[in-house]
Structure formats: structure tokens, C-alpha cells
Write a structure and sequence with these properties.
This protein is α+β, with helices and mostly antiparallel strands. The chain is built from eight helices and six strands; from the N terminus they run H-E-H-E-H-H-E-H-E-E-E-H-H-H.
Length: 235
Amino acid sequence: MTKSRNRDVNALTNKVKNFIMSEGATLVGITSVRTLSKAPKGHRPTDFLPAAKSVISIGLRMNKSSILHLPKTTREYKEEYDVANLKLNTLAWETIRFLEGLRYQALAIPASPPYDEKKNFGDMSHKHAAVASGLGKFGLNNLILTSNHGPYVRFVTVITDAELSTDEPLTENICLREKCSKCVKACPVGALDNSRYDAFEGWRIDKKKCQEYLNVVSGGSVCGLCIKACPVGKR
């Protein structure tokens, strides 16, 4: 890449990031579609936008009070969860509008839902996009832990054919792992009992146990106990 082209890419990247932050995002990171090319077939960025070059991960910090007082505040946490998703989808929509105004293509993978309910699988992994974009790393709870806000961040992903500068993955250790394991102990159905933990790749929790608990015990609502248990980012 020539110096002139590199300057243009950096300038565009700064413009995009500044716009997203001005719209209310907490975190913004960017990675190349190449870093997510090993995702399962049908769940890669280019499966949705064949000309895609960049993946933008947008994070929004959640308000903590409804989480810290779970399970009494389950209904209140559900409202927090839904509003956060709505805000994230709005941030993604504004980002797409901004990029299309610059004559680029862009589309968003919704924060949550929709997803494949039978397979309990999203169109694309917001978590892996966030890790590749340098916004955080997987914790034992299989949530993304961020440096300043721990697991209290939700994500949405925007795919674009704009060539943008990429961010480096984090190198610092965030999860305390065996020194803590509070999230594993807090799970009421043992869905986090798994020794194949990887801070960059994560691992598949027992989603069946998790979903059955949500449907039967919580009435199809949310849980959040693994977030509450995590000491990272509580202050």
C-alpha cells in the first residue's frame, strides 16, 4: 500500500470511528474479513456481502444496576437487554447510512435476535468480531470481557466493502480464570463446565442447558447471573 493510499485509508477509518462514537457507542474496533474467514460456512462476512473488506465491531456499555441485583430484577434486566439491542441496531443503521453516503456498501448483523433458534446460532459471531477487532477477549463465561467494562458490553457488527485500517487484538489478560471461576459456580445449570477455554477463540457452552433454563425457569426471559458473578469491570 502506498503512503498516499495508506493516508486515505487512515483518514476514512478515523472519520468512520469518530462518527460511530459521536452517535453514542462505547467502543469501536475494526478487523479485516480475512480474520473471520475460518468461521463456519454460511457465517462468514463475505457470505452476506461478497465484496466485503472490513468488519466493524461496535460495543455499548450496559447499565449495571439491574444486573447486580439479579435474580430479583430479572424483568428490569430484560428491559435493559432489549433497549441495549435496540440502541446497537440503531447505531449500526446510522453507520450504514453514513457509509452509503460515502458511496460504500454496508450491512449489519442484528444485535440479537434474530438467530437460528433450532441451532441456537447467530448469522455471524459478534463475539469473535469483537475479539478480532481488539475490543476484548473471551472469559470463562464465554462472554467478551473488555478492559474497562468487563462483561457489561453488548455488540453489533457492520460489514462493509470500505477498506479500513484494522486494530490489533488485545494482548493483556483480562479473565482471572482458575483464580476466580465465579461465573462457572454461579451458573444454575452447569452450562459453563468446560475445560477447553481459549481467550481468543472461546468455546461452545452447553447452550441446551442454558436455553432450557431460560425457557423453563425464567419463562423465556434472560439470566445474566454469569455477568453478575464476574468481578471484572464491576466498579
